[in-house]
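Quick log. Single chain, no ligands specified.
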Amino acid sequence: MEVSIVSKAGTGLYLEGKCLVAMPGLQDGFFNRSVVYICAHSEDGAMGIILNHPAEGVNFVDLLLQLKVIEAEERPRVAGETRAARVLAGGPVDASRGFVLHSPDYSADDATMPIDAAVSMTATLDVLRAMARGKGPKQAVLALGYAGWSPGQLEQEILANSWMICPADSLLVFDQEYDSKYERALGAIGVDLRFLSDDAGHA
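-> predicted structure:
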């Protein structure tokens, strides 16, 4: 895994560190009722990780074995929090690549991209090795694949009322209460899903 997307934003016009919440009218399989954390956004496009769609049939420890992060005999020694971790379907692009969103208490030289004060992203195996040994970040989530937008595409989708923008916090990014993240993200901007129509405006 390699970090290949570098953020050039910083003007305040971009959405790093924010979440997108899919409007009800967005029926795409990957993005239906999705909450997407934006990792990079600039004039070159945008990249984000879907936070609330666990990958079907993917076990975190099995994935560590598959990636040769650990050997079979090490499986019983994998840190307890790591054994319990879920793997997310982060998006339709590069679905075989892994991206770890994590708290800033972990950093790998030239491989970790700070996104905001609470979240960084690392896309090398080093962070998984550290997690397997109980020496990784205090908070982390692994996603396979990501959501990507070409230059101007995300802005057009927002104008077309496909997405609302909401603040992100550590609970929304890192906790494993996936079934409630969509409603919680809407609640963070004062929106009640019961009153949200398919053609409602965006925040």
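Confidence is low (pLDDT under 50) at residues 1-12, 199-203.
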